[in-house]
Amino acid sequence: MNKRLFVIALITLLSLTLLTPVLAQDSGDITLRWRTRPDNQEEADVYQAISDAIDAEWDGVTLRYEAGGTETAGYQDTLITEIEAGTAPDVFWIPGTDIARFAEAGLILNLAEYAAADEDFSVEDFVEQPMFHLTFSQDGEPALWGLPRDVSSFAIYYNIDLFDQAGIDYPGGENWDWEAFREAAEEITALGGDIRGFGMNNWWANYGYWLNAAGSSFFTEDLRSCGLDNENTVVALEFLSSLYKDGLAVPYGEDAEGPFRAGNVGMFINGRWATPGMTQVDFNWNVAELPAGPAGQSNWVFWGAYVVNAKTEHPEEAWELLTRLTSPEVQGQVAALGANIPSRVSEEALEVFLNTFPELGLNNQAFLNGLSYGVPETPVWFGSWSDIDNAYFNGVAEVINGDLSPQEFADTICTEVDQFFEE
Amino acid sequence: MATLTKPQAKSAFTPSLVLLLSMIWALAIAVYSIYLAWRIFNAEAFDVRESLGNTVQYFFGFLSLVPAVLGIFSALGFALLITNPERLNLYQRIADHELPPAQGIDRIPLLGRYVFLGLNYLGTVLSAFYLLHLWDVFIGLDEVAEAIYENRVLLWGLVGAYLLFWLSGKIIRLQRTLELIALAVGSISFILLLLFSGVHEALIYIAGQYDSLIVWIVTAVVIIFGIFTYNALQMGRTFGETPEQSIGWQGWMLVSPNVIGFGLFLAGPLLLSFYLSFTNAKVGQVPKFNGLENYTTIFSLQLREQKPEHQYPIEALDSDYSIVHTYKLGNTRYVLGARDARFWLSLENTLQFCLMLVPLATIPAIGLAVVLNSQLPGVKFYRALYFLPSVAAVVGTALIWRTALYSSQIGYLNYAIEQIINATNAIFGTDIENPQFGWLIDSRLQLFSVVLLTAWQIIGFNTVLFLAGLQGIPNALYEAASVDGASRWQQFRHITLPLLAPTTFFVVVTTIINALQVFNEPYVLYSREQQVPDTVATAVYHLYLKAFQSTSGNELGAASGFGYASAVAWVLFALIFSVTLLQFRVSRSGEER
Fold first, then answer.
1. In this structure, are residues B23 and B75 in contact, taking their beta carbons and an 8 Å threshold?
2. Do residues B468 and B506 make contact, with C-beta atoms less than 8 angstroms apart?
3. B14 touches chain A (CB under 8 A)
4. Left, alpha or beta for B392 (phi > 0: left; psi -120 to 50: alpha)?
5. Does residue A121 contact residue A320 with C-beta atoms inside 8 Å?
6. Architecture of domain A154-298+383-420
7. Average pLDDT, stretch A263-290?
8. How far apart are CA B447 and CA B375, in angstroms?
9. Which residue of A has its CA nearest to B438?
10. A8, A13, A23: which to substitute to probe chain B, counting the most B Cβ within 10 Å?
11. pLDDT, tens digit, 9 for 90 and up, residues B470-502
12. How many domains does chain B have?
């Protein structure tokens, strides 16, 4: 190309770029990005609608909602990578167990000062158990790591048709304990073929329920060391492994949801998040509370929270977004999906939840009862949850597969796990 | 050769003016680099110290002094020419072939020009990337892709245009008209696709970024770097460049995208991970140098005897050690422990995985390749079919294997086994029990199940490699052998296998390397609702867990975070490197024999 022509072309290009600000739509709005991990498209659509509604009524701020990946581990890994690279959203949701590691690593903002300056905000407006962990402080300074989006608990999903075929009472009621549970599982398994009385998945909360209901616990009371070295652990694991050894359950380690949805399993433990998906099955079903163990009734209070990226450029607006995302109206909208329970102590929002799926006549109260005596999902502030979780997971699997006795597990697990707690 | 140095167009600028401007720009680069280095040393730029620590800060500081040295060097080269017009004249005469090239060429100006060219070229590329970053292009690409996907119906316009174009070749009478219609349909669909996908909004958004001064500055820098790169390319004549030298830098320009990509995305991260392996780097924290602590943690092993006072093997070990294995020799039980026992268990799994995978992924591949190399009807279809698993996304295929094949209750594998057993029992009156294998849950089968899936995925790829190898074997050899009365098996044993040896070697080496790096298959087969069990956790999975999951911010030992994971990665690299080296040695000594 002729050099003169080249220079002229460049100058023209430069002049054109000079014009671009004139073309630019500079609304002056602050843009906030926020993200959750929806379980399905329907949930993603609800969050998008919530985002659009807030955006429309909030002057000076533009919201961009991002639906995060649905794979369990990938969501948090992506966030961590993005936070390191400085490209993470301003506000995002993370599960309760991750709060401690995100806070300790300085990835999320301590919102205590913004909350203190906000007259409309009160910690008491939210369910107590998650707020205990969300306001946990290691150094004595006031702390608020986020606001709970929603809470959830486990229930027994049961196949009414199989119970009718076996001619036995449905789960629940006053005498609904481990013994009654086992009897029901035996009767249903006796129907023969591929039918099994019971099924559950094998991530921590599943075996955790049996341990808790027997009076054991993942952690000691101060949450600073392993709490499984006791006889209650042995009782729980003996009972649980006998269900598998006697062929009453879907093999341990296999996804039990498929066989349950295929109509081959009598009772299946899962959280409230599984309910919307269950509307697709072609048998009659309902939910009941988990059976009472030797130490009484037990369950989990699952929760996750909206938190603020420590590197956000707009912390004040991010805090306001948190309060708007957890307002009674928004919680009602999310509760109407039927997948989770509002985290706000609000009769109105709870009423919305209790009235979900009226056509199915579901025992929605079972989940609320579960919350009332449930053990909160615990962020580990004094150790590495990932390593602890890994050790518990493999140890329990060894017990149920018969490679380790419940007694040996109870005697040795804390020796292995205590190295993952701080001194 | 002489045609390569084409005569230059008359320029608006004299060579000495261009040289002077270039010299000033080279000095400007040097001055800015020194300023940048000073800022980095004072930790004012890039917040390097906050995210990566002192060592990386100093490294970047020294790195940014390199352009300063190079800039000064090229400025010196230009100065030599500017101050010596005779030399300039001499060079031009050499370039115009009035004088032979060897005469009186001073290497410094020429070398200076190459350095200047390289600096400006790199400057253009890097500042262009930075500009794209400032435009938010990298985070906006997703949205553009999504928008185009939403308007995918308009892609039919492009298909229609292609069909019309194809038709125009068939109907000669209407060729010109059809071509024009095709062009119009194609262009309109493309423009509509861009418009509906919001490309104009993207452009407006980019324009909106120009409300910040830095975007203007970077844009200007890209343009200036670009102009000087173009100029430096055109200055061959001024420096008396010979055609051979011109070909030399053209070669470098051709490989430069790869070299830059390698430097930025491979060599850089490799170097960084090597450095991080000597630190306690964790997400969100400033890494601190901790010497060999990560490596000592990995290699901390203990072999202890389990004494009568020890009820359980773990009691024989120190408190921060976990069990890797227990061994019984006579009446004595020994306990092998490690500080990171899961690393050793995962390494063992990886080696077992490798030992099972290599024969399963190569031997059937040779057999398949021999069959597919024949002239059987439909063989092309089967070649494509067997290659399909290699191109299918591992996440999708692993999910299918997990639910449809491996489920012990509703999986097709167990169903097939059950049918075979039922048929056998019915025909032969036997009483074989249905084992109902727990493919993913029985600890004795879990690793094998992962191997089976992986072998299924890579057999197709290996088959294609073997096919290529087979097609390189001259047919005459087989013809001669059959004349001599060699059977099919003898031909395979004595012609095919030996001549396939180089391919086999390549296939085995790549399969071993892939096997030692396996991550996707166990991760997808297991980790949706649960962790990967210890029995199938591989070394790379372990390092992923350590890097991303064990990110607790507290001072818990050293065995977690990016630093520790990097150390694991380098230990794994050393292992893979040694295995490959050993294979090369063995292969070479085999060839020599």
1. yes
2. no
3. no
4. beta
5. no
6. 3-Layer(aba) Sandwich (3.40)
7. 93
8. 38
9. A251
10. A23
11. 999 999 999 999 999 999 899 999 999 999 999
12. 4
